[in-house]
Amino acid sequence: QAVVTQEPSLTVSPGGTVTLTCGSSTGAVTTGHYPSWFQQKPGQAPRTLIYDTSNKHSWTPARFSGSLLGGEAALTLSGAQPEDEAEYYCLLSYTSARVFGGGTKLTVL
Amino acid sequence: EVQLVESGGGLVQPGGSLRLSCTASGFSFSSSWMHWVRQAPGRGLVWLSRINTDGSSVDYADFVKGRFTVSRDNAKNTLYLLMNSLRAEDTAVYYCASSRGTGYWGQGTLVTVSS
After folding, report:
1. Chain B touched by A58 (CB under 8 Å)
2. Is A31 left (phi over 0), alpha (psi -120 to 50) or beta?
3. CA-CA distances (angstroms) from residue A38 to A50, A58, B62, B88, B91?
4. What are phi and psi of A63, to 5 degrees?
5. Shortest Cα distance from A70 to chain B (angstroms)?
6. How do strand A17-24 and strand A4-6 relate by DSSP bridges?
7. Quick one: pLDDT band at residue A1, thresholds 50, 70, 90?
């Protein structure tokens, strides 16, 4: 089974920009992995932010965007807000399975 | 209002079985692929299984193949997860989630495997 890697932790200043990445042990991440991104705050269920690399849901704040960057999936937060402090998970699709990354704890400080 | 409500969690002894349910409302359940995901205490999200719209195609994570079975009843807008031969390491909050295009999650149900 593939391993999906994320930065364990990142810090961003309020109003700043940060990029979280998501890599695959099988090689470059492509649109065919249908990368998704999820936000989870303590004590809450996850919330889907981005699907199919860059598509947003109606509830996704405009400051979040998804892309492919250097062979990895990326989630960029532009103009970080205190409420964006959370754990962020990516999910990649493989032939017969999906695999989550280990999560990135994002601190807004 | 969209809702996914999981139920059926609780305390079970090692080696036991449990069936979780996920009841959907507020969106087209029968048109949505569905997933089960779990999260052990203090740990990350782990994908378990997905089922297509009519239940004819199912995938599982390697570590639950042969022990867990996912199914759905579109007439009841309900997704199921039957878990057999439960182990302590299966202790987790179990979430159902709709396909990535809709992106809905339930609040989860806690399963504790302990003697």
Report:
1. no
2. alpha
3. 7, 14, 23, 27, 22
4. -75, -10
5. 23
6. antiparallel
7. confident
User: Is residue B45 exposed (0-12), middle (13-18) or buried (19+ Cβ within 10 Å)?
Assistant: buried
Q: Backbone dihedral region of A62: left (phi > 0), alpha (psi from -120 to 50 degrees) or beta?
A: alpha
Distance from C-alpha of A37 to C-alpha of A66, rounded to nearest angstrom: 8
pLDDT in tens, B3-51: 999 999 999 999 999 999 999 999 999 999 999 999 999 999 999 999 9
Q: Rounded CA gap, B34 and B29, in Å?
A: 8
Rounded to an integer, what distance in angstroms lies between the CA atom of residue A27 and that of residue A30?
9
Nearest to A13 by CA among A103, A105, A98, A82: A82
The residue type found at B48 is L
B95 vs chain A: nearest CA distance in angstroms?
8
Contacts of A98 in chain B (CB under 8 A): 35, 47, 50, 59
Distance (Å, rounded) from C-alpha B109 to C-alpha B7? 6
Burial class of residue A76 (count of CB atoms within 10 Å of its CB; 0-12, 13-18, 19+): middle
